Amino acid sequence: MRQFILSIALLLSVAAFAQPGMRRGPVINGDLSVTFRAQAPQAREVAVDICGKVYPMTREGDRPWQVTTDPLEPGFHYYFLVVDGFRASDPASPHFYGTGTDASAIDIPEAGVDFYLDKDVPRGDVRLVRYWSPSLKTWRTAWVYVPAGYDTHPERRYPVLYLQHGGGEDETGWTKQGRTGAILDNLIAEGKAVPMLVVMDYGQAGDFAKILLEETIPTIDKRFRTVANAKHRAMAGLSFGGGQSWSIGLKHPEVFSSIGIFSSGMFGGVGAGAYAPFSVESQLPELLADPKAFNAAHDVFYMSCGTGDPRIEHTRKAAEALKAAGAKVHFTAWPGGHEWQPWRKSLHEFVQLLFR
Amino acid sequence: MRQFILSIALLLSVAAFAQPGMRRGPVINGDLSVTFRAQAPQAREVAVDICGKVYPMTREGDRPWQVTTDPLEPGFHYYFLVVDGFRASDPASPHFYGTGTDASAIDIPEAGVDFYLDKDVPRGDVRLVRYWSPSLKTWRTAWVYVPAGYDTHPERRYPVLYLQHGGGEDETGWTKQGRTGAILDNLIAEGKAVPMLVVMDYGQAGDFAKILLEETIPTIDKRFRTVANAKHRAMAGLSFGGGQSWSIGLKHPEVFSSIGIFSSGMFGGVGAGAYAPFSVESQLPELLADPKAFNAAHDVFYMSCGTGDPRIEHTRKAAEALKAAGAKVHFTAWPGGHEWQPWRKSLHEFVQLLFR
User: Fold this and answer.
1) For an engineered disulfide with B305, which of A104, B75, B227, B315 has Cβ 3.0 to 4.6 Å away?
2) Which class in CATH covers the domain with range B125-353?
């Protein structure tokens, strides 16, 4: 009987904190300020760190710590609770892999902007594809967006966008933070984007050029009905992934015909961590030597950056230098900083240009 | 120039903590004890709470807090850091949705047990399927395991297992914690399980019986090549999800012909949170009335529990009461407590019995 009562108590206790909807996470107020709360009764100092700004929290008696921020920019912001100097994610809200850890985040809506929200349109899915990497000697997971209709049109083949995350993020970022599935579903339903696959993989591992070109792409071409040529293959990325789109994507016009560089500001060398300042002379001599051939090999060459991102100046200059060298470059500046809202908008604009 | 140097500094700072492999998470020692570390320089008291046992951490000078536990049971254990009373997940290790939050966890290997590890066999994938719930008026995501060969055999149709998580977990649990993909891939490759779909959805929402029967199953039957009849449909779950397998699965033999109840100990009423102690008389009068018809309608009726789980006694008695009432019940007791290792083993055993 004791066992039985214990069993009931255990089950009820598990059930009691079982509703994620019940997690009392941050509340977005009408002026886009956010009220954060934290349960840390024995702590001396608690703060929330969001968008690089630290807001000390206060408490009354034994109630939770609390603070309301200034109005925040629309978009997706990572944040942390700082409890007596310990930087932690918030147990009361969902976590996203970013800034090198499983971080808390809040998504502030932007008035009139709904291209990345779920809508009643035919839905694709995202497939978690496990594959072996001979170079890393480990199993990897590619997240692959597959448009609606893929399963019901087995005769149809699809172009592919390889889409890379930023530094400290991983293969989940473009789906969870970026909302790639909803963005593509909505555009394809409106006829504004060609149905395509989007492959999102982890880019900060080993010799990523080798992994992408010799392992990931052959895996995708084998396991999905792709059109396996450069004309039907694009590469894009944000920040660190934008650097890779330059250093890998632009360097391999025989593999990719379209390139997107979002908020990168400079260009990553082949391999993780190797960065160099942008230089048309040293990095793209083929463009200087023959701009016509370069343009003929590239259907879309897209660059973008938030105007509040320190990288804007450098990105703008890079686009100008590329244009001066004869390249056809599409450049867009978005409102916002080094955050997901400009990246969602960049993806939304970029994919509409692809595979036309 | 200042802008440019800032830009380099920003990029390098992002790159610097960009390698998850670099996260200095817990270390499993040779005796299966675990050494945990925490960076909390200003905290007064730090502890790790694992498997319900709290280990106070200590530090020398300004080095990180540290503790080494007793040897731990093999399997997957949630844990938390407790910093001055603030219960947080560990920024240095991956998080899993469990215990009602994004929790830290450590997976202790079991000697000689490799059925849930990645192997060089044909790999299926897991598909994140977005669908609208009319009853909840929200978009939901079903995680659907699809076996290898599904895309290359478009003429083939598949049986389906509906597999539910426990209290405080969600639709990601069976894939991430449970390793369903590897378990099924390995069994199917060995010919020990029939190729099947496994649908993992969020079960602690609204009237789950209604959602499952009227929304999820029709969605899956529409979007996948299923064999849409009871003979080719099973339901199973762990703990809270085991209760649902009883209250929904067993109550609908016209929908499910096989049922698995892992570590439940008692049986959930229809709807979230409604629990009742097990009673053949009040809950399964149809079994008492006509055991032959009950057995004829059920191909597999499976129950299991860890011997270290307080629910073992009640589960064993329930299985005996069911047998006494004339039901064919397969009962297995596993080593271990109310944790994922017995649930992985239960899934591994249960799916081998299905759809024969």
Assistant:
1) B315
2) alpha beta
